[in-house]
Structure prediction request, 401 residues.
Amino acid sequence: MAPRLPRPHRDDVRIAVGGLLGGLCLWGVGLYSRTADDALARVDQGWAVLVPLAVMSGCELFRRSRPRTALLTGTLALVADLLTRGNLATVVMFTDLVYAAVLYGSPGSARRIPRITGLVTVIATVWPVAAWHRAEGLLIGAFTGLVTFTPAATGWIVRNHRDTADAERLRAEQTALLAEIDRTQAVTAERARMARELHDMVANHLSAIAIHSTAALSLDDPRTSQDALAVIRENSVEGLAEMRRLIGILRDDSGDREPAAAPTLDGLEALLAGARVNGLDVTLEAAHGERLPAPVELAAYRIVQESLTNALKHAAPGRVTVALTRADGALTVRITSPYGDRGGPRAPGSGAGLVGMRERAALLGGTFEAGPGGSSAGRSWTVRATLPLTRGEPVTRGEEA
Prediction:
């Protein structure tokens, strides 16, 4: 089955029809490019100019879809036109075919056609002058250049501008896409950071409220209920203050407000004191030396805070040990709590705390482990995080040991 010819573009149809009608008008009034006694006019009948004219107008239909084929066929039609008395419309349509072949053709054709037409122009200029020894031969070269090289050069310039515009538009779209990706990643990272902060700040208070309120409801003891209500009130007030501070930071976009001080390891004693009030038996073993980098202190503080919250919700009765050691360029945070069945009330967990602790360690290039284990004191749940003191240098397994 023969391949179907592409449908001509509507603008190409208009050009073809306009060129054909213009050529017919010139033929109708008897206006030709050359006289009947011209040496090139082998066929002096007036109707002969219509054949190249019709072929050339047909080539215009495919100037955009088949530019190279249209140019080759148009070149043959131009040669045929030279053997007649000539029609100006045929020549004008040929120049458009040269222009279209450079503009719409393949990159190889766009490079070769200006070179070929330039060479033809040079030959058409030099050869008549050398053969006739008359300056009038330069007119032939000028006409040839006007018909061939000028439209080819114009098409090359327009194509370069079009390709440059396309490249700039593509670059702008890529830049906009990258900017959108960066914005989305920044929003996602900020939302994850705020989720971690919100969880770490409020979960401890809400867990204590849930556990003590359950105890107050399940035990018919006025003294126990009174103590539970006191703990609930204290945690409610502290949790509300934390929420107000966080909401204030989110709403204040003026840039004039001083950022709230991030918690440091100096506040561990106060954190552990609050945990003891909530009913945990906590001890601290700290050997981390002088002040550490602020991101490391914040991550360590939040990991301890979340571990104490988990111990309050899930740990069996017994001692919770918090140990901080500094060695081999890293801070190791280790929290150990009793693991087993718990007789009293417990708060539900979602697993978001472990995810947040793992993310905090990963952001600093550190490692995080959490899980049950055995010891001389019985079964225990251990949380272990290793945080490099130099950002961007992850700790290897050998360094952890």
In short: Residues 10-173 form one domain. Residues 253 and 259 are 11 Å apart (CA to CA). Strands lie at 281-287, 319-327, 330-338, 367-375, 378-388.
